[in-house]
Design brief:
The protein contains five helices and twelve strands. With 238 residues, it is of the alpha+beta class. The protein folds into two domains: 183 residues, Bira Bifunctional Protein, Domain 2 (BirA Bifunctional Protein, domain 2), CATH 3.30.930.10; 43 residues, SH3 type barrels. The termini are far apart.
Amino acid sequence: MKTKLFYPLLDSTMNEYQRLTQFCTGTHQWIIRAREQKEGRGREDRFWYSPEGGLWMTFDIYYDDFIPTFPLFIAYCLHSLLLELFPLESLSIKWPNDIMWKNKKLGGILCEHNESEKKYIIGLGLNTNVSQDAFDGKLDIVTLSSLIGFPVSNEYLSDLIIANIHKKIDLLTNPKFYLNYINLWLYGLNQLAQVQLDNKIVTGINIGVAEDGTLLLKDREGYIHEINYGSLNYIPDL
């Protein structure tokens, strides 16, 4: 059974998902959207600004196995669909979970795994029809409607995104395919980057994503660091 819900305003679609699933067991599937979120969140509980006009949603995917590269699979599905729908040649994927246009953020993905219920909970945010003024002059954010010249249907786009994930779900048995795709469209490839870990900063050249989904940074001594978490920033050329 599948339930689709739309709210004018939520704290976050992820929070609403958690509230609803407390009272529903089994393989019931939820798709939750909001016109606006007041407490949207990204990785590491970072605040995700979610004004009216964007596509803010949480949904679940049932899958028996735990796949470490699952967030990159979702990024692949989203990126490939957007390229199929719109002429966005400068669209890229920033490890591990952002969709970028040139140096500006278009969207982000948050994935959580529920081992006991064999499912993934996916939070997805896309700056689709948001007014650029709503971002208070932030220069590192871009909207889809500003790139393509017209607004999109958030409801229809959300249906296409979920359908595309189900269509490609068998690729989870062959991560090499979508990881190769990620490397083809990887934001910041061959650029100098810094990753903030718990108690240190790693600096190196981004040389791509490994077969296990870790980001590879090569430092100036030639050592390759395998990064599987942390806050990633790129250092502009001087």
